[in-house]
């Protein structure tokens, strides 16, 4: 049984790789790649800012007839995120950077141009000094003169500052000490005022407490004794109303009967006539049985109860 994942393939003995047909693709063929904006740029059509690092689906192609030290140069096509205008830029292997071609302007381009100009001038100077020793001497004398002028200008500025601002350090220290002493004195005065205010408050509280304690025994002395003898309680009139508490006004008393006495009336029960006759008969039989006389009415008369 053969392997599922075959690593080695079979080549017949008459295999000739030159006979394999090759794809004929154009040299300027474009590929779709995913890239990020290499620098900040601004669209010329709508003025939209495209910041460095923004991702695009770009078309990539090889620039024809442009090579730097055998390295090919590539061109990229992107579209503006707002107006969909086409923007192109290509690689710059000489400066390890990118150059803007069409559709937008690169931000901070002036600073880059200034740096490039300085590098170019420095390079030209080095080339001149390499072949001309007299030029080296002239450049050195110019540099020394320029350095002396800079030092003189710096010294003049220092002297001018000293003339305009004559600083007396001793006076400054003295003024600073006076300021510190004044601050300490103010702090001490504020602390003393706070202490005085606190003492006055405490004294006022004590006076108020003392006055309250003096008034309470005076009031207790002025009250007369309401009950001198224990038997005076029996002689008090019943119509005297007791002092009602605040909770009794809202809820009412629970044990008092005087307030509810007029609301409830007791119904008197009338005697049943049948029961009354029964009790009378029992009474007569009892009387006749006890009396030696013969008739019952005589017994009623003898008992003093006349017939009605």
TrEMBL record:
UniProt-listed InterPro entries: Saf4/Yju2 (IPR007590), Yju2 (IPR043701)
Molecular function per GO: metal ion binding
Compositional bias (Polar residues): 278-290
Keyword Metal-binding: yes
Subcellular location: Nucleus
Family: Belongs to the CWC16 family. YJU2 subfamily.
Protein name: Splicing factor YJU2
Organism: Buteo japonicus
């Amino acid at each position: 049984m053969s392997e599922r994942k075959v690593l080695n393939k079979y080549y017949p003995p008459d295999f000739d790789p030159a006979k394999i047909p090759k794809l004929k693709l154009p040299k300027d063929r474009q590929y779709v790649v995913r890239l990020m904006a290499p620098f900040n740029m601004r669209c010329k059509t709508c003025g939209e800012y495209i910041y460095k690092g923004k991702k695009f689906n770009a078309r990539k192609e090889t620039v024809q007839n442009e090579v730097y030290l055998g390295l090919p140069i590539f061109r990229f096509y992107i579209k503006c995120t707002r107006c969909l205008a086409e923007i192109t830029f290509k690689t710059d292997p000489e400066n390890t950077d990118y150059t803007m071609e069409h559709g937008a302007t690169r931000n901070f381009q002036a600073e880059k141009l200034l740096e490039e100009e300085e590098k170019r001038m420095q390079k030209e100077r080095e080339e001149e000094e390499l072949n001309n020793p007299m030029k080296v001497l002239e450049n050195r004398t110019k540099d020394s003169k320029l350095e002396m002028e800079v030092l003189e200008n710096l010294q003049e500025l220092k002297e001018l500052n000293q003339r305009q601002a004559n600083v007396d350090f001793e006076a400054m220290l003295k003024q600073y000490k006076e300021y510190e002493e004044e601050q300490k004195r103010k702090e001490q005065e504020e602390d003393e005022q706070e202490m005085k205010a606190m003492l006055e408050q405490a004294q006022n509280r004590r006076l108020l407490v003392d006055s309250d304690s003096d008034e309470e025994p005076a009031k207790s002395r002025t009250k007369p004794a309401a009950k001198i003898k224990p038997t005076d309680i029996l002689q008090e009139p019943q119509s005297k109303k007791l002092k009602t508490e605040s909770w009794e006004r809202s809820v009412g008393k629970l044990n008092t009967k005087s307030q509810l006495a007029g609301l409830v009336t007791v119904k008197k029960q009338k005697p049943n006539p049948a029961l009354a006759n029964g009790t009378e008969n029992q009474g007569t039989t009892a009387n006749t049985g006890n009396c030696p006389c013969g008739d019952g009415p005589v017994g009623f008369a003898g008992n003093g109860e006349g017939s009605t």
